[in-house]
Please model this.
Amino acid sequence: MSGGLVSGAGGLAPASEPLRRFLQVARGAGLRVSAAEGIDAAQAVQMVGYSDRQLLKDTLGLVLAKTPDEKMLYHEAFELYFKRDEFEGKPDDDRGEGGRRSPGSEAQGGEGQGGSGGKALTQMLEDEDRVTLATMVEQAARDSGLENIRFFTQKNLYARRIMDRMGLRSVERDIESMRREGTPEGLGRAQVLEGRLEQLRDSVRDFVERNLILFAKGETEKFREELLKSARLSNLERRDMERMRVLVRQMAKKLAARYAKTRRRRLRGQLDIRRTMRRNMGWGGIPFITVWKQKRIEKPRVMVLCDVSGSVSAMSQFLLMFLYALNEALKDIRSFAFAGSLIEVSDILAKEPVEQAITKIMEMIGYGSSNYGNSFADFQDQFMDKVTNKTTVLILGDARGNRTDPRTEIMSEIAQRSKRVIWMNPEFRSAWGTGDSDMYRYAPFCNVLTVCNTLRHLERVIEEILESGS
Amino acid sequence: MNDVLPPGLTALQSVEQVDKGLAEAGYISNSQISTAIYMAHFLRKPILVEGPAGVGKTELAKSVASWMKLPLIRMQCYEGLDESKALYEWKYGKQLLYTQILKDKINHVIGEGDNLNEALDKLHAFGDIFFSKQFIEPRPLLRALEEPGGAVLLIDEIDKSDQEFEAFLLEILSDYQVTIPEIGTVEAIVPPIVLLTSNSTRDLGDALKRRCLHLHIGFPDEKLEAKIIASRVPGIDASLLKQLVSFTGQLRAMDLKKLPSVSETIDWAKIMVLLHTTVLDVDLVRDTLNVLLKFEADIEAAGKQIAGMTHKARQDAGVGA
Model:
């Protein structure tokens, strides 16, 4: 993130300061800008200059934003940043470069500057010299390291620092002394000055706020997303749902990119004689090129059984969302939802976007009290013959059957027919087997049995399925 | 900045010039596209062009080539594309044939030395004659590097290729050179202008993206689309043009499986001109809708709203109903 990297690209010093700060803004807005791209940007800017804003925007857009989403973020960041009118005048950054100081010397430096710049500030306030004031605010903001602002709680701190740097104290002293003189003219001046100072305060606060949005938005978002990934899904607040959907889609996309292709693993040391002969027919069967035997790792076929009764429904939603976002990496998904009884929901999910489909499913059978034995029996009647030795059966549920017959013998049949059974339980391990939980009755038939109540858990389980294929 | 420039490029001064050049080649560009070409030329960076199918990604490369009078070398990517098809291959047949023909010669050179070591030493003295440039079959990438006057290299639909191939491209894209183990490193005589296109069927790797300028071409706005069609379908009636553009614009606002893109609008415009139409009417639109929409479900969905959309298109063009 340092300016050194960018300006290191060979004598780009005059342009690099505003650019460097823009790069920081861009990163703050969520663009991923690498050092190499920073250098590209510097070179590009050197060519096109700052004068033509549209050209500048197009150019930096080419170098910095590399997906449609990023283009949008970039567009916002660019508009916001250059709205600050930094380049309306001439982009003078001699002071910015020369005036950079180590953070340690900041405190004393501020005091000294306050003394010397103070008279000027009083003067400027009286003259209402807005242009110079604005430049001064910029300068003071830069000197007090405003670009490091991260949290809204720091707003007052930075506003105060900027005011101090601009010479707030000496203005206050001036006002004080005018008051003390007591002449009507002095009092009048003091009053005017106070009013203007208040205005200045407001605009500085405003300025800080804009910068907070500029520099810290990405940071806060990132923090929030990290939290959400490991938050218990049943405790989610409604306002986070939209963000979660985006997150799920992102995570699924990542996995899909990795596993979307049928993969082959070369078996070491086993020559595929038939294919070697065929490949080398062109030169009389002399094996110039050897072909080795391969093992195909096929895309997994998955059958998902989701408990959609009250306690587990939130989790089911996300599991289905995840799986359907993964469509391209899976060969075949069939999904079933159950509470008191079980139905197939593949069609609904295939036709409608997952969010709406899930509400529909919930209306059909959801929210009842669950009966695992009954549901398994439904599955056995209608779908058992579809379970083959290539099928991964995924069950999501808390195994709380309200003291009905668990019908473990059906579970055993599923386990025998399928490639493997994975059970995900949103409850903590300590709660398994307590009360009406039949978890430990089902446990012997599961190849994998795991706690699963956050997005991270989900990702891990699904990755494991993809990893080993079918 | 550059020492060696392709012939058409020496005079490249400004973005406007790119605009004009492309227009001469029949490609109506916008400021982003022109800036991209301009920057690609000066920064010597490949451009990654993304966008929906049919907005003119491939066409852009063709136009750049024809404007700059450079040969266009095109490489279509597909799953399973590998080095031997993209870069070079040894001409096994020729190698084999030559060894047969030169058998006597070789016997002669090796001479009567019945010591095996001696014969081997003599053979070594030839050097690798059978693994030299004469026996290499250059494929698109190598051809682009060896083109003496520079070239436009179009790597089409890079998203269809495997991830490994993407990684293999990195050397070419950043340094304009490739390494052939038996021969050494081949550097470009004149760095080609490289365009990669992608329909985003999968996410490309960060390493590749980092090396490229990224250009996103979306659907053009109505004005630009009208210009494009006017240049592609000469002699089209101005009011018809407005109606067509307005109609496709409305289609694009609908929730369809595949939205009609520029190439489809052009086809449609051509048909309308062939049919001597000047005013759109509902039946005609219904009959020709399959030019714009490629899915049965889409045609069905749009079919219900044709009347309203046609009416609006006529209004936008100022043609009374």
About this structure: The first helix of chain A runs from residue 3 to 7. The beta strands of chain A are 263-271, 292-297, 301-307, 332-338, 342-344, 391-396, 420-425, 448-451. The first strand of chain A starts at residue 263 and ends at 271. Residues 3-82 of chain A form one domain.
